[in-house]
Design goal:
This protein is an all-alpha fold and 157 residues long. The protein has helices spanning 2-27, 33-56, 64-88, 97-102, 104-129, 144-147. It starts with a helix and ends in a 10-residue tail after the last helix.
Length: 157
Amino acid sequence: MSEYSAEAASLVGTLDSRLDARAEEDFSGEPNVEGMLGYVRVRVKGYREAVDGIGALDPPEEVAGLHETLRKVLGELLVAEEARAAFAETVTSVDELDLVWEGPEAEAIRIAEEKAIVLCLAAQAQFDETEQREAFAGVSWMPTELREVVRVALNCP
């Protein structure tokens, strides 16, 4: 479970870092259509990679339900990001940029992001509960999965 949680956290952390850096790059100057398009395209690409990366992980049985929920939420985010990107492709002027961030496509993303936050907090709580197992670390007859302590910081918003 430690390996799984570290890999999942790394995939999500890499996505968040990349999107934050790209947002800073694209939105540090005057608003423009090209910067907005570049940013929404990077978001779609990033979520596609996250969906594929999480899908490639083999979760331990202990977190299989959590893993499936994560796959579902990331899939919802990808679909919503693709819809916003498709809408963004129709924007032709700076005056229309707000529509990309405030329209129905953006609202679908906000809803999916709220689900992701709830999931992140639940996952962190589940991983944090493993610290109680530390007392059993030296008990040889106890199965490994019942002795494993998972220390991972998911950095949930």
